[in-house]
Amino acid sequence: MSVEKLIVDHMATWTSALQTRSTAGRGSSGKIDLYGIKKLRELILELAVRGKLVPQDPNDEPASELLKRNEERKKELARNNGMKTTASTNIHGNEYYIDTPEKWSWIRLGNLAKFIDYRGKTPHKKENGIRLITAKNIRKGYIDLNPEEFISEEDYISWMTRGFPKCGDILFTTEAPLGNAAIIDLDGKFALAQRSICFQWHTPEISPFMLIQILAIPFQSQLSDKSTGMTATGIKASKLKEIPVILPPYQEQIRIVSKVQELMSLCDQLEQQSLASLDAHQQLVETLLGTLTDSQNAEELAENWARISEHFDTLFTTEASVDALKQTILQLAVMGKLVPQDPNDEPASELLKRIAQEKAQLVKKGKIKKQKPLPPISDEEKPFELPEGWEWCLFEDIIDIQSGITKGRNLSNRTLVKVPYLRVANVQRGYLDLTEIKQIEIPIEEKEKYQVVKGDLLITEGGDWDTVGRTTVWCHDWYIANQNHVFKGRNIGQDVDPYWLETYMNSPFSRQYFANASKQTTNLASINKTQLRGCPVAIPPSSEAKKIMSKLHIFYKLCEELKNHIQSAQQTQLHLADALTDAAIN
């Protein structure tokens, strides 16, 4: 079967095998790896280096003749430039890591190229001058000129003493990341530094095929086997030079490179179409979900929901679309649109009156510190119109906010006790991550002061922009304290469901409030206690809050089931893509 037929016959598998990334990129498609197309690219490269991509021609000059010319050129360079080969010549039987066709030959990498090695060297950088290329610029198959770094003309002359890379050479990364490679196609001079080596081929015409070979899985596996290091794996030049590589006849190399370029262009088209389709699908989902949040009343909401329900199976087919559905349901919940209002419910205003009276008593008894009053919520600060029976209040009106333990205090001459405590990493949006609980020593008399009790809210002070104001409820009976980067919020009355407050604080409205109120620096943001006190919160009647939370749990369970179904289907597609590539290779 030709590769073109393999692509066409299994188009659905290549384009539908998707993998969700752990970190989000730009747009909905930025959160997804096109796994099937990635596997297809890997397959094309592997078939190329195994001699299975184009037919062999018995009239081609064998690769052994190419190696003879390589040897002559190598000796000439040694005579003229004093260059000596450090790679051994013999290749042993167990070193041949793939089967190759007739007329192909093996040779060690170090016998094919001069290594211009600038690893471990870092020049003094300037704002402009001669371009500097490091491992950060070398990608898989191309050179990315970002980030832009430069050295001066004077430094360039003294710096480039190990050799000058030129067009057609291959740049290769030896660490962080290991194994990226690209052919040099840059105009003008440039310097080389940091975790990069230049392969300057004795016979430059082999460069396009050698790039294919370096990026293909068989060679990458050799790199992995010979690499060292735990956190950042790398390979020594002495090991790299000894890796055996394969060379087809030169005429076959030309045919292979041409076919790879043709098929990679087809992969590019598939990728663009898939990404465009994913983005269009997500825009459609978000537009239709927007009709729900824009509904003016329960009747309009029911009509819009019925319209979406008719196409549920085609709309919610990606994890991003299910996430959008979940966010829409959350928004409907906190706006009072998820369940109908009951005119017989006690209005939230009565609840707030009772809490205000209880708070006054607690202040009088010294159990809560009296705070300087904050200004009331203005109409501009109210993000939406409340249903009948609901009320706006400040977060501090219903919650006693307390700070946590400050690390690094001078605690000499005090009796200390070691306690577990919660950090920002433990407090996620709507849940706790208790995989790692750290401990800290505090004065024994402060143990009760810093205790987090069941039902307390935990709110993060800062971190990256999406971390600020992250809220969850402590739901355990065992002792734990909170660090000062995690605020503790304790209910003043018992009538406000802490899980309702958790839900509202994690809604788009509170997140927008914290984004506007927080102090932001590069990629970081934080809020202070006063800003948290002043966060506007929508309070429904108590009985309605219970109904909303019950409905919310039903919808969240549905979303989880949808996600599980999608993940299961995706896993099947991944296995199919793997099976197709394995079958094609073997």
UniProtKB/TrEMBL annotation:
<dbReference type="Pfam" id="PF01420">
    <property type="entry name" value="Methylase_S"/>
</dbReference>
<feature type="compositionally biased region" description="Basic and acidic residues">
    <location>
        <begin position="66"/>
        <end position="77"/>
    </location>
</feature>
<feature type="region of interest" description="Disordered">
    <location>
        <begin position="56"/>
        <end position="77"/>
    </location>
</feature>
<keyword id="KW-0540">Nuclease</keyword>
<comment type="similarity">
    <text>Belongs to the type-I restriction system S methylase family.</text>
</comment>
<keyword id="KW-0680">Restriction system</keyword>
<dbReference type="GO" id="GO:0004519">
    <property type="term" value="F:endonuclease activity"/>
</dbReference>
<dbReference type="InterPro" id="IPR044946">
    <property type="entry name" value="Restrct_endonuc_typeI_TRD_sf"/>
</dbReference>
<dbReference type="GO" id="GO:0009307">
    <property type="term" value="P:DNA restriction-modification system"/>
</dbReference>
<keyword id="KW-0255">Endonuclease</keyword>
<feature type="domain" description="Type I restriction modification DNA specificity">
    <location>
        <begin position="387"/>
        <end position="567"/>
    </location>
</feature>
<keyword id="KW-0378">Hydrolase</keyword>
<keyword id="KW-0238">DNA-binding</keyword>
<dbReference type="GO" id="GO:0003677">
    <property type="term" value="F:DNA binding"/>
</dbReference>
<dbReference type="InterPro" id="IPR051212">
    <property type="entry name" value="Type-I_RE_S_subunit"/>
</dbReference>
<feature type="domain" description="Type I restriction modification DNA specificity">
    <location>
        <begin position="101"/>
        <end position="278"/>
    </location>
</feature>
<dbReference type="InterPro" id="IPR000055">
    <property type="entry name" value="Restrct_endonuc_typeI_TRD"/>
</dbReference>
<protein>
    <submittedName>
        <fullName>Restriction endonuclease subunit S</fullName>
    </submittedName>
</protein>
